[in-house]
Design a protein that fits this description.
Elements lengths: L1 H11 L1 H21 L4 H21 L5 H26 L18 H7 L9 H16 L12 H22 L5 H8 L1 H17 L6 H13 L26 E7 L10 E2 L2 E2 L2 H8 L2 E7 L7 H10 L9 H5 L7 H6 L4 E6 L8 H8 L3 E3 L16 H17 L4 E6 L20 H4 L3 H25 L6 E7 L11 H8 L7 H4 E7 L7 E3 L3 E2 L3 H9 L22 E4 L7 E4 L2 E4 L8 E4 L13 H20 L7
Parallel strand pairs: 1-7, 1-8, 4-10, 4-11, 5-6, 5-7
Antiparallel strand pairs: 2-3, 4-9, 8-9, 12-13, 13-14, 14-15
Helix pairs in contact: 2-3, 2-4, 3-4, 3-7, 3-8, 7-9, 8-9, 10-22, 16-18
């Protein structure tokens, strides 16, 4: 009889009910993310919620225990709701480091709202029902009295110990899986958070290098083992490289265009060129059409970081937030040594993505942000690309008049998700029956406007004479079409081109125009965003090897083969070489690959094993190098 009463008290307890509710919600999260249920992983999810609910049962005073349990349920529901939105928007598992980006949410609230769907609110249904029942009973004057039913503390303590032990053992066994999606599926959502935190703590305590000099030497040795060809930026060979120093002393203007994917170049809609300006520029420039994004959690700001440093983003934290307090070796600092003035332009507030820390760390002499531009209220970020360029040209002409060479970076925002272009700014008319109420249509309109605005800038450069003495670099920061809204097969049908969920999506244009160039050259060498700065440095006659400048990119004008890693938007261990895009499973052996040229799956990935370990070693070395960079002095 006593056993029956004990069992009854357990099933009726808040401990059991809240644990069950949270477990069911974790199962729903699995369906949202993986579209299936791995029951072994779901069992570990159960262990994590039993441990959390048990802690409340054992540690919280009885008079506030009910509120504490409902608070646990509310907090857990909010976290899982946020995790669903995060995965929908980024395709990655949210971690506690994502909290660093909370202050950015208001700036991109329109994008966040687009990621919300009615089914996402399933995590709050139980609380909504409980609230309605409470209001109903209160109105009738029949509020239930919580009897304080509680299972025995000894049994709860035993459950908690077992749950913690099972979770700890699973983290030890599965915690070394590099593929974050696989690891989270195997460990369960909350155990994955513990695994991630443990790994971050261990990494923060351990430093592979004792100094930047040791790091540079080790990285050079790793790169020398690359199975193809030595990099041509060694001090003794740099001067022999193609076009080395051909643009020495020229101004450098870099335009990073928001959400620009490479398929848009040369694309037509009902006979209308989508990007006529970029088309013409590509035809008269070095056009690298096989380049891919490598950004991490910092998105656009990470693209800026990579272009200016040729260092891998950490993946676990925006580089502007995590390393804005460091002395970063950078392109602006290299050019300042050559007598250049350096500046950067962005229409948003400089605190967005902690650019107020990033820009001084990169060594820009000056930045121009929101207050500097006439706000025509183009979108949530403020001024349009036209205003960005119009204001920027004033600074460039002033430096020209002072006979001072410059490096100017422009970061555009008009083509930012959710791609809402004011009607009076739309330059292309899309077939309503085909594109109405589709993200594809909105994206095409946004890219077309960004192209038009770039044209106004080029016109101003020509009118002021700056065109004839400046290198113009244009590239895309990251993909635009969100995978959660755009099935690749549907995009293939709608766009009329083969569209791969990763290859086409991550492919961004990289265009370099040099003064006097009228005949363009399309270069199909595979590359990443880390390769952009070394390519431009070669044209300027800056030997990165001679300066012992630590970098992880290659000069795309002077290599025969390439391989580089991608993480955050793909699992750690993913890489691209001249032939394939590879994505690991639990390890290399169960990974998958697709050919870049045909978009067909690769049956045997064995020949690419060296590339896998090479890129893993480079990304790890980049992370370790960042740790030993000295902290910069701030005012």
């Amino acid at each position: 009889m006593e056993n029956d009463r004990a069992a009854s008290s357990f099933w009726k307890s808040m401990f059991f009910r809240i644990a069950l509710l949270l477990w069911l919600k974790l199962i729903v999260l699995r369906v949202f993310i993986y579209h299936k249920i791995d029951w072994s992983g779901a069992a570990l999810d159960l262990a994590s919620v039993l441990a959390a609910a048990g802690a409340v049962e054992l540690l919280v005073p009885r008079k506030v225990k009910k509120a504490a349990f409902w608070g646990l349920n509310a907090l857990g529901s909010l976290i899982l709701f946020a995790a669903t939105l995060y995965f929908t928007h980024f395709g990655s598992i949210v971690t506690y480091t994502s909290l660093y980006g909370l202050k950015q949410v208001l700036q991109v609230s329109s994008s966040v709202k687009r990621a919300m769907h009615p089914e996402n609110y399933v995590f709050f249904i139980d609380m909504a029902i409980a609230a309605l029942l409470w209001l109903y009973r209160k109105k009738r004057g029949s509020l239930p009295h919580w009897s304080g039913i509680s299972p025995g503390k000894a049994s709860i303590a035993a459950v908690v110990l077992i749950a913690v032990a099972v979770s700890a053992l699973s983290i030890r066994v599965e915690g070394k899986v590099r593929n974050e999606l696989v690891r989270a599926e195997k460990l369960g959502f909350f155990n994955y958070q513990s695994s991630f935190a443990l790994e971050a703590w261990e990494n923060s305590r351990e430093t592979k290098f004792a100094s930047t000099e040791q790091a540079a030497d080790t990285i050079k040795k790793i790169r020398s083992k690359f199975p193809y060809r030595p990099q041509p930026d060694d001090a003794e060979t740099a001067s022999e490289s193609r076009l080395f120093g051909s643009q020495k002393g020229k101004n450098v203007i870099v335009v990073q265009i928001e959400s620009l994917q490479n398929f848009t170049i040369g694309y037509t809609v009902d006979g209308q060129p989508l990007t006529p300006v970029l088309n013409g520029l590509a035809e008269q420039s070095f056009y690298f059409d096989n380049v891919y994004q490598q950004i991490g959690q910092g998105n656009t700001s990470d693209a800026e970081f990579m272009f200016n440093t040729s260092l891998y983003p950490a993946g676990s934290i925006p580089m502007s937030t995590g390393f804005g307090n460091r002395e970063l070796p950078s392109f602006p600092k290299l050019l300042r040594e050559q007598g250049y003035r350096t500046m950067t332009f962005h229409v948003n507030d400089v605190t967005f993505w902690d650019r107020d820390e990033l820009y001084p760390a990169l060594g820009f002499d000056r930045y121009f942000d929101k207050p500097y531009f006439t706000n025509d209220e183009f979108n949530a970020f403020g001024a349009s690309d036209e205003q960005l360029y119009r204001a920027g040209i004033k600074q460039l002409t002033a430096l020209r008049d002072a006979n001072v060479p410059f490096y100017a970076q422009f970061v555009t925002a008009s083509s930012h998700h959710p791609f809402v272009i004011p009607d009076d700014k739309k330059k292309i008319r899309l077939p309503a029956d085909k594109y109405k109420n589709t993200q594809v249509g909105e994206y095409l309109e946004a890219v077309n406007y960004a192209d038009y605005a770039l044209g106004t800038f080029i016109d101003q450069l020509k009118a002021t004479g700056l065109w004839d003495n400046s290198i113009l670099v244009v590239y895309g920061d990251h993909s635009g079409l969100k995978p959660q809204y755009n099935d690749p097969d549907e995009l293939t049908r709608l766009l009329g081109i083969p569209y791969h969920e990763y290859v086409t999506r991550f492919n961004v244009p990289f265009i370099v125009h040099v003064p006097g160039q009228t005949e363009g050259e399309t270069i199909g060498q595979a590359g990443g965003q880390l390769d952009m700065m070394p390519t431009v440095a070669n044209l300027l006659g800056i030997s990165l090897g001679e300066r012992n400048f630590v970098h992880f990119g290659s000069d795309l004008l002077n290599i025969e083969r390439n391989v580089f890693g991608i993480r955050y938007y793909l699992p750690t261990g993913s890489f691209i070489n001249d032939d394939i895009l590879f994505i690991p499973g639990e390890s290399f052996e169960d990974g998958t690959a697709v050919r870049l040229d045909t978009l067909e799956p690769v049956a045997d990935v064995t020949p690419y094993k060296k590339d896998y370990y090479y890129t893993m070693a480079l990304m790890k070395s980049s992370d370790e190098y960042m740790k030993v960079l000295p902290k910069r002095e701030t005012e």
